[in-house]
Amino acid sequence: MNLLGARATPWLALALGAACSLSFAPAGLYLLGTACIAGLFWTWESASARRAALYGFAWGVGLFLAGAYWIFTAVYVFGRAPAWLALLLLLGLVAIMAAWYALLGWAVVRLTPRSGPLRWLVVAPAAWVLVEWARGWVLSGFPWLQAGYAHIDSPLSGLAPVGGVHLVGLAAALTAGGVLAAILGTARQRASALLVLAVTWVVAAALQGRAWTVVAGDAMEVAVVQGAVPQDLKWDAAHRRQTLELYQGLNREALGARLIVWPEAALPMLADQAMPFLTGVWRESVRAGSHLMIGLLRYDANQDQVYNGLIALGDEDPAWYYKRRLVPFGEFFPVPATVRRWMRLMSLAYSDLTPGPASQPALRVAGQRVGVTICYEDAYGAEQLAVLDEATLLVNVTNNAWFGDSNAPHQQLQMARFRALEAGRYLIRATSNGISAVIGPEGGLRARAEQFVPLVLRAEVRPHTGLTPYARVGNGPILLLCLLGLMATLFRSQLSRRRRL
Question: Is 234 among the catalytic positions?
C-alpha cells in the first residue's frame, strides 16, 4: 500500500484503533467501529506479511490504550500500587492484546498474498473471529472490546441469540471486508460484496425481536441495592458501621420485592463475621416476603482458602455460588514467590483468592432457579451456557468502584446486555456504585440506576425457560466455520502453488 508511505501507515493504524474504541459504550458509534476495521484491512493492501503485522499491532495498541486505559485507574488510584507498576501492567496488557492483531495481519497476508474478494470476504473476517476468541481465553484471556459488543444496539444484534458475540463479530468483520471490496473491487466484485452486505444485515434485522425462549411464570418484582460506598472507604474499619447501616436502610426500602440483590463483596468483612448482622436482615426480609442474594467474601478455615461468593438467603438453607474466573493481578497473582515477597514489602495486595468449582448449579431462591456470575465473568459468554438448562433468571453482581468515572462500567454493562440477549433471559445486575440495571431477554434496559448514588432500583421480571440456538451449541459452530474457511484457503493456495510448479 502505500499511498501514505511506510512511515505514516502505522500512525494511521494507531489512530484507527483508537477511534474504534468509540464504537463501544458509552459512545456506541458502531458504524465507526466497522469503518475502523475496514481501515485496518485497507492498510494490508499490497503490504508484506511483516508490514501487515506491524499495522495490526499499531491498531491493537490504539484500541486498548484508548479503550482500556481504566486499568491504570484501578491499579494506581484504587489499588494504591506505584504509578510505574500500574503503567507497566497497562502497557503489558496492551502489548499482549496488540500482538494478537499483529498475528492477524501476518496470517491474512500470508494466506492471501493477492488482494481480492477471498481476502476481504473470507480470510480476514474468519481470522478476525478466531483471533478475538483466542485472545479471550489464552492465558486467562481478556475478552474486552470484542467487535460484536459494539453492535448491541445495531441490527446485527439479531444474530446474538443464534451464534453469540462471535457471530456478531463475524458479521461486523464481514461488513468491513464488504465495504473494502465495494470500494476497491471490480464491478462484478462490488456487486457481489453489496449482495453479501445486504443479506447479512437483512437477515440479522429480521431476527431482531424474535422470542427464542418462553415465559415460565408470573411477573415478579425485584430490587437492586446499590450502596455506592467509595472504594477507598469500603475496607476502612472506622467506616464499617456506617456501611452496615447504609445497606440495612436500603434493604428496608427494598422490602416487598420478591428478590433483593446486593452487589459483589457488599460488606467489608468475611461471611462468618457478617452473619450475625445478616441474620437479622434475612429474618426481616423473609417476613416481608423478600428473599436475598448478597455478594460476600467467604473464608474456608478447613482449606485455608478465601472465595469470592454470592449467598442466597430465602426460605431454605443458605446456598452459595463461588466465582470461577478470577481477575489476574486483582484476585490472584500469577507471579513467582520472590515477586510475592517484594509485593509484601511494598504493602501491595498479594493474597490469592480461590476459584470456585467449574460446575455449579443454579441457586434456588425466590421461587426461581438463578444462574449467577460475579464481576467480569459476564464477559465470557460460554461461562453461563451450562446453567441455562435450569436457570429461569440470571444475576450478575460486581464491584465497579475500582474503575471510578471511566468507560469500564459502561463497557461491562454492554457485555451484560449481550449475555441476556444470548440467553433469552432477564438479567439482574447489582453493582457497588453503578451501573446497576435490569436487562430484558432482548438485551434492552428495563431499568438503569444512576452512578455513584446510594439507591434501590426496582423493576419487574418474568422467568423464562427454553434455549436459544447459541445456548444449545455455544461457540463451536462459528469457530469451526471460520477454521474451515481458513483451511480451505490454505488448501487452495497450496494447490495453486503446485500447479505453477
Answer: no
